[in-house]
Each structure stands twice: as structure tokens, then as C-alpha cells.
Amino acid sequence: MVDGRSSFAFCQPHYEDVPAPCDDVERAKALTYVHYTTSDLHGRPLGKLVPVYPDECLLNNKVYLCPVFFDLTPNPERMELELDEVAVEAGFGNAPLTPIPSTLSPWFSEDERSRRVICENDLDLSPRTLCRRILERLPMDFKSAFEYEFFIGNIDANTNSFSPAFKSPDIYSQHGLSMGNKILQFSKSVVEECENQNPPIKITTINLEYGPGQVEMPLAPHLGIDSADAGFTFKEIVRRAASDSGYDATFCSSFDGIGCGSGGHFNFSLPNCDEEMSMQFVAGILQHVPGITALCAPSLPCYARQGHWSPTKNDYDEDNRMCCIRGKNDRGNRYFELRLPSSACNPYLVLGAVIACGQEGIEKRLKMSDVEKTDVPNSLSAALTALNEDDHIVEAFGKRFVEIFTNVKRAEIDGFERLLAKGETLENIYVQQYMKWL
Fold this sequence. Notes:
globular; Gln_synth/guanido_kin_cat_dom; five-stranded mixed beta sheet; Creatine Kinase, Chain A, domain 2; Lengsin; glutamine synthetase activity; alpha+beta; 34% helix; single chain; 17 strands
């Protein structure tokens, strides 16, 4: 049960059996290129491109990465190898990529010669693997979807600055969405590529948001880990489609440290549970808000959102956008919105954290009145401290994962502070450290 839905087997060709390149033009034209893609700690897609000949199996289990990619900060120019004692001692051996066949999809190719498949590995740092293991312990269906905002414009690598596609706040503007037809065409290409995925990713609506260059595209719900796969894939599609349209898209939560940041709100429901059990699940999440904040808001720019449509307390209310969790009733459809995650969140870590906390709420039969009222950590440093002090979250994700995640994030903070001490502006630092990469 690698993907939580079905078992599968692989064709396992030996590399020595792969035919040598030849001059057969027709055979070369029949090549398929498969992107083996996995998530790093930050939700960035990493992997390898594998050429597959017509007489070979489309997927094989002999693709490897060096596990150093778990020691990268969001800006991959920084590699904190000394922070991972286990990997150093093991000599950084191979991390095999295990493809999930149910995710194999066409990838920006009309002739389907280019494919993409989401992969796991068996390391205890793999976000998708950890998320799947947490999900497997949940005895009921769980439906969820991410509601992403992002910035679109152009990054100047020479000046480390960002020019948004439109300057003034223009929330819900249809004129702005259609101006010059460029943003509209970009949006349509995102929708169409998302529909090509397996399973299809449906974008429910598209609108301009309040911030300059800010766009929102909520996703339709999926069961189980499919929602995190959808969020992970959606981000990659947006960045690729933006590049094809002459833009840069970024899921960095802020590009200047002021004003409205980009959220990654997480909508969820338990379709087979009654109201009492659903509220126990919600109470379980609220009880652990300080501990999961670093997983939901994992970069320094995320904390510029606080107080700007982002929660500051672990509170709940019906249809209240100011609260941490907002109860929703849409034509009889009962679900909840966790407003804590930023657009920079790794969807696998958010889904895993919500399941781990919500399930504990059900098991302990927590009531909303049992939840200790507290503030949301107001910095990444404070959030990392809270994460390490939350025994339940540490147990759910594993001590080694929390240790490496914390070390890499603290290295990220140190790099930020060094640049700030040199007199760099927030915008310059955000572009260097985050916007090019997230």
C-alpha cells in the first residue's frame, strides 16, 4: 500500500539490458521522457528526468538521488551537510525513488512524450512518505483541498527585486484578470494542465487578490493523500505556466514584508463523521496550533501575514475569516478552513499535521472548551521552539525529521540575519532566499 489506495508492482529492467543508443531515428522519436519528482522539506519538486525507450518499462525502481537534498535551505545555494549527523555517518548513500504509478500523468506535452510521476523514498525525512504513514492510521475518510494565493510578475536577478504584474490592489477585478489577455491566458493554461493530471486537479475559481500581482486559485477537494499531491503538483504547474507566459510566479508568502501576504488555506471535512466527532477533530488541531505553526508557516516571510487575514490566536468561529479555523456551511456541505498555512507551506506536512492532531482530538474526545487558549507563535524561531516542545507532533513525524527540519530552518534564519546585518532590504533578501525557489 505505497500510495494509500492500491498495491502495485514494478517492471525492473537491469541497466545492462538497456539497448545502447543507435541511429534508428524512428526509435529515438518514440522515446518517452519521465520526470521522477519528489518533495524536499520545503515542498520544492526535485528529481531526475528518465528517457524511456519503446521496448522498456515506463516506470522502474532504479532511480536514485543523493539524500543531501534534505539538507538544503529553500535557496539551494546553501547546503547544511554538517547538520545531518546520521547522513554524514552513513556517507550519503543512495536514496531510491519509488514511483507512484497512480500519479503518472502527461506533463506539458501535446504528444504525451513527456510524463511526470510523483515518487516517495524510504527515508524517514520524505514528506510524502511521512504524510502517508500518518494517514494510514486514520480509520475514516478525510477530504481536503488547498486554497492557494501566489504572486505573479517578474524577478530581476541582477537587482534582487520583484515587479508585480499589476501594481495596485485590484481584488476580484475582471478587467485586471483580462488585461492584455496575458494573465487570462496564463490562468487558462494552468487550468488545462491541471486537468491533465492523474487524478485531475480541478481549480474551482480564479480571481485577483488584494495584494499587487496576487492571484488566488482554490482547488477542489480530494480524498486522502491526493489533496497533498494536488497541492504539490499545482505549485509546479503554476511556476511552469508562468514561465511560459513570460512571468515569474512565486509562492513566497510576501515579497516586501508588508501588506497582505499569500495564504495556503486548508479546507477539510470528515464525510462520514457527525458534528460531534468533527468538532473533536477541530479541537485536536486547535490544541496543537503552536506546535504545527512551523509546518504551516515554514519560512520567515510567512510571519509578515500575521494580523493581515492570518490568525494570531488558536480560535474558532463560524464563517469568521479572522479566526484560526473557520466553520463553513455551503448549501448543506459542512467543512472547515484552517487559515494558518501560508502559500509557502509543504502540503504533505500540513496534511500530516492536521491528521495527527485531529485524530488525537477524536481519540481523547476533546471538546472546544477543553482547548487551552493561546497565541500563534509570531516568528519562525518561536514556532520551531514550539514544534520541538510538542511531543505529539514529534512522535507523529519522528524525532529525526523534526531535528533536521529545525536545523535547516535555523540555518535559514541565520542566513537571513546575516544579509539583514549587511544592510540588505527585506525585498532583496526575500528574492534571494525565497522568491526564486518557492
